[in-house]
Amino acid sequence: MQQKNSINRRAFLKLSSFTSAALTIGFYFPALAEESTILTAATAEDLGIVLNAFISIDKSGKVNIINHRAEMGQGAFQAVPQMIAEELEVSLDKVSIAFGPGHQTKYGGSQITGGSSTVRGAYKHLLRTGATAREMLVEAAAKKWGVPATECYALDGKVIHRPTNKKLVYGELVEEAAKLTPPKQVALKERKNYTIIGKPLPRQDTPPKVNGKAEFGLDKKLPGMLYAVVERCPYFLGKVKTYNDSVVKTMPGVKHVFKVQMPVFDTLREGIAIVADNTWSAMQARKALQVEWDTTGFEHLDTAALYNRMKEDLRKPGLSQRTGGNFDATYDKAAKKLEAIYETPYEAHACMEPLNCVADVKDDQITVWGPIQGPDWIQRDLAERFKMPMENITVHMTFLGGGFGRKAFTDYTTEAVLISKEIKAPVQVVWTREDDMTQGPFRPGAVYECKAGISDNGRITAFQTKMAAQNMDHQWPHADKSNFNGSTTEGLPEVFINGLDHYSFSDIPTESPIPVMWWRSVYASTNGFAYESFMDELAHAAKLDPLDFHRLQLRDERAEALMQMLEEKTGWRTREKNSGWGMAITECFKSMVGEAVKVSKQPDGKLKIDRIVAVMDCGWYVNPDIIRAQVEGSIVMALGAATTHETHFTDGKAVETNFHQYHMPRIMDVPDIEVYIMENEEKPGGVGEPGLPPFAPALCNAIFDLTGKRIRKLPFNMNEV
């Protein structure tokens, strides 16, 4: 059993924000164990175990949950309570949820909200915890009545005795239940018996977001808090040469002006912090600041040079992620051969809420609040950077106005802590939209070389992809740059790769000073465009319908069910001759998504998207409305990256500074999106990201179907095709 330092129970409950709780249970993972163990808070304290405090039930019967993940619109604040409420047998209006602070050993592993992992990573433990609490309450009621527990059942926050119909509400039972030992085995419901899971129930976080009660990072206020903005070097590796703050220091509200650095992977980005008693004063003072930057000693790349470098890199040997059979020999003998090059752009994250962070640094303590995707990661990072014990660092999550990977990074939190430490006061550091969009890190652009051989019957006999792009993992300090990109195959269905006899997937890591990082669906967002566009080209080379061609390659019962649904919902076999239809199927984060797009020409000759159909197979799921919302959002984001926006670079600086240049899709640009969800008993997959990769290739394949023009470079202008 893994032992931890004992913690005071009152402190534990206070930490959990449930000081009035009478029954608190959660789970932890014993050393080397694959299954979690569920304990009460009191037992955990006695054993010195750091418990994952997920459920507390107070004497009023109110159920409180600590959510270990961020809520950035993906629906964790709804999905987690739905899972707990289902097995606990309570209505959702009896359940409230709060953010858990960053902690290295709680919550069953990483707290980083990414990889579409909230449900698929914790669903078993959450269901078991809810069911365990239910059985403990049933046992407590049975003891109170002096009857066998088998004669009792739970329903709607009560325990009922079948023979007599006697009832006790949960609040009357929690004190006795807290004295019991949680059962090691509990029966979970079958899906057919669910009354809450699988239902499109309204999200609990919607009302506070509408009425203004939800706390986002910018809403956080502390007594004596000051406000800061930072004039950061516009060049990614630039340094402060000199600065003149004489005018700035005389401006109203300004308290401090000083140089600050923040870590960006293995480099430091420099800037001048301006601290004032309000944000407006700090921003106005920033305009008067005079800074001279040292921009020597590093490349000043522009977009054309970047892509020329990637194309040159394709001529180099690749770092192999997966290789099987003998691609070269089989490709040489193929009945038909095809090669193609695809390009995808750099992208900003463009969250509706720009970066911000509140930090309060004491002599031996650091506390931060903000829109943070990985509180445990931030806690560990700050401990290492400031040489402080982990337990002295507290990281609080607020709601996030979008994240997409950007708010899982450590730069903006470290910067806020450094400023608070310097001024010896709490501070809120606010990034402007221009800061957010020009400083990066960005989604990496990429160039792909795809080759394949096909047989006379349309089967792929040899398949090779080579990706030239910056490798995110190569940017960290002491990174091994001989390592291949582990995401080279991301986006391709696993059943497709398993069906290949001769294949090669590799990458050439392009070197650039531009910082890059995760963006919604990570490398699948660019891989998907190249791979599924190429699949469509192969289908036409084989003279096969694209859906039939996919069936030849994806010989799998689950994939076939998805393709049947896509065929049925699109009316694929009866599509009109004067319209263009394209489709694509991708897989990432254990979910497979098929999408089809219909396009047509308007009287003025311009293209129009008429219809978008998406079929999501994420296995076991919680709330269909959340799935539909996430797929719709993914498609809109993919539409923008395909047709309206990208980040360019000139002289080593980002060009697009705000939405007047980085054009986001507007509501009138997006047709109705139909989302269908597969029903099966498979393990849950991700939902927040897998809907993005198939859209761009489906759209471009539809344009080819209508016009005969192949689009191999993104973004493109719909009005100029």
Automatic annotation (TrEMBL):
<keyword id="KW-0732">Signal</keyword>
<dbReference type="InterPro" id="IPR052516">
    <property type="entry name" value="N-heterocyclic_Hydroxylase"/>
</dbReference>
<protein>
    <submittedName>
        <fullName>Xanthine dehydrogenase family protein molybdopterin-binding subunit</fullName>
    </submittedName>
</protein>
<dbReference type="InterPro" id="IPR000674">
    <property type="entry name" value="Ald_Oxase/Xan_DH_a/b"/>
</dbReference>
<dbReference type="Pfam" id="PF02738">
    <property type="entry name" value="MoCoBD_1"/>
</dbReference>
<feature type="signal peptide">
    <location>
        <begin position="1"/>
        <end position="33"/>
    </location>
</feature>
<feature type="domain" description="Aldehyde oxidase/xanthine dehydrogenase a/b hammerhead">
    <location>
        <begin position="211"/>
        <end position="297"/>
    </location>
</feature>
<dbReference type="InterPro" id="IPR012368">
    <property type="entry name" value="OxRdtase_Mopterin-bd_su_IorB"/>
</dbReference>
<dbReference type="InterPro" id="IPR006311">
    <property type="entry name" value="TAT_signal"/>
</dbReference>
<dbReference type="InterPro" id="IPR008274">
    <property type="entry name" value="AldOxase/xan_DH_MoCoBD1"/>
</dbReference>
<dbReference type="InterPro" id="IPR037165">
    <property type="entry name" value="AldOxase/xan_DH_Mopterin-bd_sf"/>
</dbReference>
<dbReference type="Pfam" id="PF20256">
    <property type="entry name" value="MoCoBD_2"/>
</dbReference>
<dbReference type="InterPro" id="IPR046867">
    <property type="entry name" value="AldOxase/xan_DH_MoCoBD2"/>
</dbReference>
